[in-house]
Amino acid sequence: MKNKKEARINLKLLLVGILLISLIGFIFAVSALTSDDKTALQNELNNLTLKLSSQGYDWLVDKTIDYNSINDSSKVEVYRENGNDSLAVFDNLNGEMNKILLTNLGDNESYDVFDLKSVGDVGRINGNILLMKKRIDEIRGVLNSQINLKGELS
After folding, report:
1. Between the CA of residue 36 and those of 18, 42, 58, 97, what are the distances in Å?
2. Nearest-angstrom CA–CA distance, 117 and 80
């Protein structure tokens, strides 16, 4: 009786093991890119890299950007017109409307005209350029994950 229970448990464990190995193999086969997919991604990567370089952003192609901290590191500083001293800073820009009260202006100073300075790595990058760079990083991630899955270049 005890041997039959052990045999059933062993058979169940064997079946579960076979099922897991089959499932892992299936996931690997589905997630692997075809050679046409790889070629298409590599061509897109080459075209985007060429576009960035031709527009003067060749320095950006291999730069690492933390896309999650773009808003955290970007800010706008407010200066008097043609002045050098910062009056105020807009921190944590999130794409919504931002207000700041300029309470330290003199009696004869204008409240209408100011100079603004964008601060942060991404503040000076055009949005379309940033989207191209993000796509380059996505493609590289996909191609690198394929290399890591197989353990070799293919």
Report:
1. 31, 10, 27, 45
2. 11
Q: Contacts for 51-57 with beta carbons within 8 Å, 24 or more apart?
A: 51/132, 52/129, 52/132, 52/133, 52/136, 55/129, 57/125, 57/129, 57/133
**How far is 72 from 63, CA to CA, in rounded Å?**
18
DSSP character at residue 57 = -
Strand partners, 88: 78
Whose CA is closest to 93, among 133, 121, 123?
123
Q: Give pLDDT tens digits for 40-76.
A: 889 999 999 999 899 888 888 888 776 665 555 567 7
Most confident listed range (7-21, 68-82, 90-104, 114-128): 7-21
Q: Which amino acid makes up residue 121?
A: D
pLDDT band at 27 (very low <50, low <70, confident <90, very high): low
Total residues found in the chain within this entry: 154
* Residue 139 near residue 46 (C-beta atoms within 8 A): no
